[in-house]
Amino acid sequence: MIPPQVQASNNDVNQVLSLGNICLLDGSWTASDRFSGCGWVWMDNREDIQLMGTRNFTRCESALHSEVEALRWAMENMLQHSSCQSFGTDCKELIAMINESQEWPRFATELEKIETLQICFPDFKITHVPRMRNQLPGFFS
């Protein structure tokens, strides 16, 4: 079970982040495997798990590509199954990509898909969740 609060550091100041009504996501990638994978879990305002999903796909170009794919798929599922507009990831590079997409030209095609989906989320937010808090036993590995 994911704890109800997360300690995060922002400019060396500890903050407590509530995880209520959030979709946590993660991508999986290794250079030697034929497939990449991703998963997400949606928790409601009471921080009860409401829905989760995992899938695999032909191996992406890099681990970061897998993280982008995880976000895209999680966003599509939240549009279909909930009103959740907050996403959590342990990948700081993914957050940087979303906030400064022009700085990541290698990912232009993937980020265009994310930007198109973002239009459907008027209050879209992506937050860093430390790795040890962004996992469920047997789910995100």
From TrEMBL:
Residues 26-135 form the RNase H type-1 domain. Pfam families: RVT_3 (PF13456). InterPro entries: RNase_H-like_dom_plant, RNaseH-like_sf, RNaseH_domain, RNaseH_sf. This is RNase H type-1 domain-containing protein. CDD domains: RNase_H_like. The lineage of its organism: Eukaryota, Viridiplantae, Streptophyta, Embryophyta, Tracheophyta. GO terms for molecular function: nucleic acid binding; RNA-DNA hybrid ribonuclease activity.
